[in-house]
TrEMBL record:
<comment type="similarity">
    <text>Belongs to the phosphofructokinase type A (PFKA) family. PPi-dependent PFK group II subfamily. Atypical ATP-dependent clade 'X' sub-subfamily.</text>
</comment>
<feature type="active site" description="Proton acceptor">
    <location>
        <position position="232"/>
    </location>
</feature>
<feature type="domain" description="Phosphofructokinase">
    <location>
        <begin position="107"/>
        <end position="413"/>
    </location>
</feature>
<feature type="binding site">
    <location>
        <begin position="176"/>
        <end position="177"/>
    </location>
    <ligand>
        <name>ATP</name>
    </ligand>
</feature>
<dbReference type="Pfam" id="PF00365">
    <property type="entry name" value="PFK"/>
</dbReference>
<keyword id="KW-0547">Nucleotide-binding</keyword>
<keyword id="KW-0067">ATP-binding</keyword>
<dbReference type="InterPro" id="IPR012004">
    <property type="entry name" value="PyroP-dep_PFK_TP0108"/>
</dbReference>
<keyword id="KW-0324">Glycolysis</keyword>
<keyword id="KW-0479">Metal-binding</keyword>
<dbReference type="InterPro" id="IPR035966">
    <property type="entry name" value="PKF_sf"/>
</dbReference>
<keyword id="KW-0808">Transferase</keyword>
<dbReference type="InterPro" id="IPR000023">
    <property type="entry name" value="Phosphofructokinase_dom"/>
</dbReference>
<keyword id="KW-0418">Kinase</keyword>
<keyword id="KW-0963">Cytoplasm</keyword>
<feature type="binding site">
    <location>
        <begin position="230"/>
        <end position="232"/>
    </location>
    <ligand>
        <name>substrate</name>
    </ligand>
</feature>
<feature type="binding site">
    <location>
        <begin position="275"/>
        <end position="277"/>
    </location>
    <ligand>
        <name>substrate</name>
    </ligand>
</feature>
Length: 469
C-alpha cells in the first residue's frame, strides 16, 4: 500500500480536527437603563412599516447576536491563551425600543477636519430618523462642539438635506477645539436633546466620551453615539473609516500627474505629499493602486536621506536606470529628521495635536540641494504636488456613500434600542456596536512587518531604511 493511501491528504486531515474551546468575552455596552432602570419599552415602529418585513426570521437583532473581532485562527488548535477573544453586539434594529419617537429631540454635530462622506452621514441620520422611526425634532449643531453653546441649532428635515450627499465638506460646518464640557452638556440639557450623534476622529471621540460620562453623572435620559471619521483611516478596531476609499482614488490622480511630470523631464522626480499624520494608509493604498510609485514614505517606517541605504542613494540609482522617479510621502513621515526649533516642538493645534512641519516642502528643498551638491551641472527637476484639500473636500464615491448610509442607520437603530456611549462600524465586514471609549483610544497603524507592506516594497524595490554599520 502506498504512503498516500495510508495517510489522507493534509486538507482532509485538517477538516477532521477538533478545535479546542475558546473563551469569548462580550464587550458590554452602556445602556440608558443603567441609570434609569424604570424606563418603559415600546414596540419598534418598523413593525408597522409597509416597506419592511419584520415578521421574517432574522429581521430583528437580538441581544445574543454578536460579531467576533478575531476570525482567523490556526486550525491546528494552537490558540494563544494570553490573547482575549472579543465579541461585540451586532448592529441593527431591535424589536423593543426605549425612546418614544414623538418625544425624541436629536442633535447632530460634525467636528474636526473634513472628510468625504460627512454630508451623507448627516443626510442619512436625518432621513433615517424621520422615515424609519417617525422622529420630527432633528437639529444640526453648527461649527463643531462650540456650536452647542455659541449659536442656535438649525432644524433639519428630509427636504432640506435631500441633496447634501452630492456635496463635499459638511453643510453643518466644522471646527477644531471649542470643547467646553460643562457648556456643551448644559446646552444638551437646556435644549432637551435626548439623542446626540457625534461624527469625528479620535480627538472628537475622546470628547464624546467625556460628554457621555457627564451625562451619566447627571443621570440624564440622553443617549450618545459616535460615528468615527478620519480620512487617514487610523481609527482602531473597525475595518476602515468612511471617506478613505474616496481619498485613495483622489490620491491616485495626484500620483498619475506626478508620474507624467517626472517622465517628461530629464532626471525628473514627481513628489506627492498625501494625508496621514500618524498612519500611512492613504499613501500605502494609493501606491499599491497606482503602480507608478518608486518610493513610499510613511510615519510607521522611519527613513533617512544620506549614506548607504538612504533615500538619495536609492533615487540616484533609479534616475540612472529609468530617468525618472515618483516619491509619495505621508504628511507625518520624516518628522523626526526635519530640523525644528524648541518653540516649534511645543506647538499644538486647537485640538491639542502636535503641529507637524511640512515634510513635502522640506523634502522638495532637500532633493534639490542634494542634486546640486552631487550632480552639479546636470539637468534635474522636482515637481511637488500637495493634493491635501482636494482629497478631503471632494464628494464621497459610491462605495463610501453606501458605507455612510449603513453607518448612520446602524447608529439610529442602536440609540433607539437604548444603547449609549458607543460607536458603530464594521468589524470583519459586519456592523457592530463598540464601546466609545475603546474606539477613542484604539489606533490603526500600518503594520510594517505584514504582507501588505512587503507588497509595497516588492513593487517599489525601495530600501528598508535600516541603518547599516
Amino acid at each position: 500500500m502506498s504512503s498516500s493511501a495510508m495517510n489522507p491528504p493534509i486538507q482532509d486531515q485538517l477538516q477532521t480536527l477538533t478545535i479546542s474551546p475558546l473563551t469569548v468575552t462580550l464587550k458590554r455596552l452602556p445602556h440608558i437603563t443603567d441609570d434609569l432602570p424604570n424606563l418603559q419599552t415600546q414596540t419598534n415602529p418598523l413593525q408597522n412599516n409597509s416597506f419592511y418585513h419584520p415578521c421574517d426570521d432574522g429581521f430583528y437583532i437580538s441581544h445574543s447576536d454578536v460579531i467576533l473581532r478575531q476570525i482567523v485562527f490556526d486550525f491546528s488548535g494552537n490558540f494563544p491563551s494570553s490573547s482575549p477573544h472579543l465579541a461585540y453586539h451586532r448592529a441593527g434594529p431591535r424589536k423593543e425600543i426605549f425612546f418614544d419617537p414623538k418625544q425624541v429631540c436629536a442633535a447632530i454635530v460634525t467636528c474636526g477636519g473634513l472628510c468625504p462622506g460627512l454630508n451623507t452621514v448627516i443626510r442619512e441620520l436625518v432621513v433615517g430618523l424621520w422615515e424609519l422611526y417617525g422622529v420630527r425634532d432633528i437639529f444640526g449643531i453648527k461649527a463643531g462642539y462650540r456650536g452647542f453653546y455659541s449659536g442656535d441649532p438649525i432644524r433639519l428635515d428630509p427636504k432640506l438635506v435631500h441633496n447634501w450627499h452630492k456635496r463635499g465638506g459638511t453643510v453643518l460646518e466644522t471646527s477644531r477645539g471649542g470643547f467646553d464640557l460643562q457648556k456643551i452638556v448644559d446646552a444638551i440639557q437646556n435644549r432637551r436633546f435626548n439623542q446626540v450623534y457625534i461624527t469625528g476622529g479620535d480627538g472628537t471621540l475622546r470628547g464624546a466620551v467625556k460628554i457621555f460620562n457627564e451625562i451619566q453623572r447627571r443621570k440624564l435620559n440622553v443617549a450618545v453615539v459616535g460615528i468615527p471619521k478620519t480620512v487617514d483611516n487610523d481609527v482602531g478596531i473597525i475595518d476602515r473609516s468612511f471617506g478613505f476609499q474616496t481619498a485613495v482614488e483622489m490620491a491616485q490622480e495626484a500620483i498619475s500627474a506626478a508620474h507624467v511630470e517626472a517622465e517628461s523631464a530629464p532626471n525628473g522626480i514627481g513628489l506627492v505629499k498625501l494625508m496621514g499624520r500618524h498612519s500611512g494608509h492613504i499613501a500605502l493604498d494609493a501606491t499599491l493602486s497606482s503602480c507608478d510609485v518608486d518610493c513610499c514614505l510613511i510615519p510607521e517606517n522611519k527613513f533617512y536621506l544620506e549614506g548607504k541605504g538612504g533615500l538619495f542613494e536609492f533615487l540616484g540609482i533609479r534616475l540612472k536606470e529609468h530617468g525618472h522617479a515618483v516619491v509619495v510621502v505621508a504628511e507625518g513621515a520624516g518628522q523626526d529628521i526635519i530640523p525644528r526649533s524648541d518653540s516649534e516642538k511645543q506647538k499644538t493645534d486647537e485640538s491639542g495635536n502636535p503641529v507637524f512641519l511640512d515634510v513635502g516642502v522640506w523634502l522638495n528643498s532637500e532633493l534639490k540641494r542634494w542634486w546640486e551638491r552631487d550632480h552639479k551641472g546636470e539637468l534635474f527637476t522636482v515637481k511637488y504636488i500637495d493634493p491635501t484639500y482636494m482629497i478631503r473636500a471632494v464628494t464621497a464615491n459610491a462605495t463610501d456613500n453606501l458605507y455612510c448610509t449603513l453607518l448612520a442607520h446602524s447608529a439610529i437603530h442602536g440609540i433607539m434600542a437604548g444603547y449609549t456611549g458607543f460607536v458603530t462600524g464594521p468589524i470583519n465586514g459586519n456592523y457592530a456596536y463598540i464601546p466609545m471609549e475603546d474606539v477613542a483610544q484604539a489606533k490603526s497603524p500600518v503594520g510594517t512587518k505584514d504582507h501588505k507592506w512587503a507588497w509595497v516594497r516588492s513593487i517599489t524595490a525601495q530600501p528598508d531604511f535600516q541603518f547599516t554599520t
